[in-house]
Write a structure and sequence with these properties.
heterodimer, A: 336 residues, alpha/beta, Rossmann fold, six-stranded parallel sheet, two-stranded antiparallel ribbon, 13 helices, 11% strand, globular, B: 329 residues, 2 domains, seven-stranded mixed sheet, 12 helices
């Protein structure tokens, strides 16, 4: 089990330079701000359907994506805005997709739960719990078939662990040695069901041992710890096609979706407040400031940059027209 | 032309497409070492090796999803369902992943996969292994659904399915695997998806049928010819997209239609064909469209009951006589 890196002073002790610190903080801030604005847009009626916010879990997407190459793939479930943004998607097009507009990543046909971006190898946006775990193995199968050294990172929640597809996928990925990293974001609740009410084994990483693959638990609120653990898994997958299971211990600060805004029925206010003390952005900012890697002015500049970019995303989404009626019938079949 | 079995025609189609395109691979339960539960993949492991002929554990949902994931990245998987009954375990992957990915991604990710295997009534295999499965799939926008009746169709349509950029559900029949017929050996021979065929020309009534029901309808047509009833037989071959034009064209000529299907009739293929014939050719009809369908019951095991479940030649012939005796004009 990987522990959070010990707190030591000095840039080299943290193993990161200003550029990397800036990048990690920027990605986390971008996701946080994006989600806040998406929630606002939802309350204004600009975003419909289900909206699942990633607030609190940003360190997982930011840390994992920071060790991926452009030709690597990421795939996720329905709480995937952060994963898509961290892989490099344009926030303007992500926001436009949430707004159901023609300039959205999926031309407004997918929505919040079905983000896809081929330009950054983001494979979706899959909203049936557990269903994308085999898809991730399939992408890894194709990589191996083609003799490439890319990898697939598959994000999923603790809720998927009770599904058969989790076990089927781990079994086959291990059996066939597929270059896939199964990255479970254990935020402790599958909608309103806590892990101890759903899983006979709540130490999710241990399922990896059952299938004989490297498996680790990591503090999902610590972006550097996530980066280190996923980095090792990516190296294994790249070098010898070994899959991994990583359990990131994280927490969502908001409810399951905007229809469960407080998330207060199944967890206590005290618990939520306690977990907010582990805010991954606050903690990382503190660390890089204390270590002298970034200055207060650096951070303020980053925040301003992020705010501008998200404001621009909202303006872009607002200005984008609705998809034309005839698009109802396009993209059903690919014709040559 | 060569004479070969339906099974051999499928095998040849797989070989030719695997030789033609290195991105085509076969995956499923017992497809390699065992050479296929029904031997459709016989000899493929020897010719193409384990990289392209992939034995899977019994995990339909996972290996179908793996096929879909591989297709998204540009490979052309042919996933075998040992029997199509098992595809229900993969129904979510087929309906929610394969069929919708192109749409949900706004045209970014297509899924060029073929999911094939036997389906339909088979001898005394009882309720879970002997049933018509196409109905679960042809309802879904984004899927193509093929049911090849003859060895020639089996080869030509499977090749088209593999070359198609969309998910294709390709349902064969255990009972047809040993059936022999003429098959072109030309590796460039393909039959486009979405084209029906008139298997027998006639003037009095159009009978629409496929797979085993087409063979029974042929027998019925032979019998009725002796009574002076001229039957035109139309085989849709592809159920989605359906070649409505050929079917309606035939009905406009004969003014009568009978649809035969093996599956339970409620909300079946017969309902759909009867509906669109009524919508598009109502004024041409001299009699209501008749449906001859499987009984609305699960498939029983006992031989006598099993016989009652699926439309017989006599039942088909009786329906044709009824339609032809109706006074419409």
């Amino acid at each position: 089990m990987a522990k959070t890196m010990p707190e030591r002073k000095g840039p080299s002790a943290l193993g990161l330079d200003a550029e990397l610190a800036r990048r990690l903080l920027y990605t986390m801030l971008l996701i946080r701000r994006f989600e806040e604005k998406a929630a606002e847009a939802y309350t204004l009626g600009k975003v419909g359907g289900f909206l699942h916010l990633y607030i609190g879990q940003e360190a997982v997407a930011a840390g994992a994506s920071s060790v991926l190459r452009a030709d690597d793939y990421a795939i996720s479930a329905y709480r995937e805005h952060g994963h898509c943004l961290a892989k490099g998607a344009d926030p303007r097009r992500v926001m436009a997709e949430l707004f159901g507009r023609r300039d959205g990543l999926s031309k407004g046909k997918g929505g919040s739960m079905h983000l896809f971006d081929r330009s950054v190898n983001f494979l979706g946006g899959h909203a049936i719990v557990g269903s994308h775990l085999p898809l991730a193995a399939g992408a890894a199968f194709a990589i191996k078939y083609e003799g490439r050294d890319a990898v697939v990172v598959c994000y999923f929640g603790d809720g998927a662990v009770a599904q058969g597809e989790f076990h089927e996928s781990l079994n086959i990925a291990a059996l066939w040695k597929l270059p896939v990293i199964y990255l479970c974001e254990n935020n402790r609740y599958a909608m309103g069901t806590s892990t101890d009410r759903a899983l006979a084994q709540t130490e999710i990483w241990k399922f990896g041992q059952t299938y004989g693959i490297p498996s680790e638990k990591v503090d999902g609120m610590d972006v550097l710890a996530v980066r280190a653990v996923v980095g090792r898994a990516v190296a294994r997958a790249r070098q010898d096609k070994t899959p991994s299971l990583i359990e990131a211990d994280t927490y969502r600060f908001r409810g399951h979706s905007m229809r469960d805004p407080a998330g207060a029925v199944y967890r206590t206010k005290e618990e939520v407040e306690r977990e907010k003390q582990r805010d991954p952005i606050v903690m990382f900012r503190e660390r890089v400031l204390t270590a002298g890697i970034l200055t207060e002015a650096d951070v303020r500049a980053l925040e301003k940059d992020v705010n501008d970019r998200i404001d621009e995303a909202v303006a872009f989404a607002d200005a984008s027209p609705e998809p034309p009626d005839e698009w109802l019938f396009t993209d059903i079949y690919k014709e040559d | 032309m060569a004479v070969m079995t339906y099974r051999e025609a499928l095998n040849l189609a797989l070989r030719e497409e695997m030789r033609r395109d290195p991105s085509v691979f076969v995956m499923g339960e017992e497809v390699g070492l065992y050479e296929g539960a029904y031997k459709v993949t016989q000899g493929l492991l020897k010719e193409f090796g384990p990289k392209r002929v992939v034995d899977t554990p019994i995990a339909e949902s996972a290996f179908t999803g793996i096929g879909i994931g591989a297709a998204v990245l540009g490979l052309r998987p042919v996933v075998e369902m040992m029997t199509f009954n098992f595809a229900l375990l993969a129904l979510d992957q087929i309906v929610n992943s394969a069929a919708k990915m192109f749409y949900m991604s706004g045209g970014q990710y297509s899924v060029p996969i073929v999911i094939r295997g036997p389906g339909g009534p088979a001898a005394q295999l009882a309720a879970q292994h002997s049933q018509s499965m196409e109905v679960y799939f042809y309802h879904v926008p984004g899927l193509k659904v093929v049911r090849p009746t003859t060895p020639m169709d089996a080869k030509g349509l499977l090749k088209s399915a593999i070359r198609d950029d969309n998910p294709v559900i390709f349902i064969e029949a255990e009972t047809l695997y040993p059936v022999k017929g003429e098959v072109p050996e030309d590796p460039d021979f393909v039959i486009p998806l979405g084209q029906a065929i008139v298997r027998r020309e006639g003037t009095d009534v159009t009978v629409i049928a496929y797979m085993g029901m087409m063979y029974r309808a042929m027998e019925a047509a032979d019998e009725l010819a002796k009574e002076g009833i001229s039957v035109e037989l139309v085989d849709p071959r592809t159920l989605r997209p359906m070649d409505a034009e050929t079917i309606i064209g035939s009905v406009r000529k004969t003014h009568r239609a009978v649809v035969v299907e093996a599956g339970a009739g409620f909300a079946g293929m017969g309902s759909e064909i009867a509906a669109f014939v009524t919508e598009h050719a109502f004024d041409d009809l001299d009699a209501p469209v008749e449906r001859v369908t499987g009984a609305n019951a699960p498939m029983p095991y006992a031989r006598n009951l099993e016989k009652l479940k699926t439309p017989s030649k006599d039942k088909i012939a009786a329906a044709i006589r009824r339609v032809c005796n109706a006074n419409g004009s």
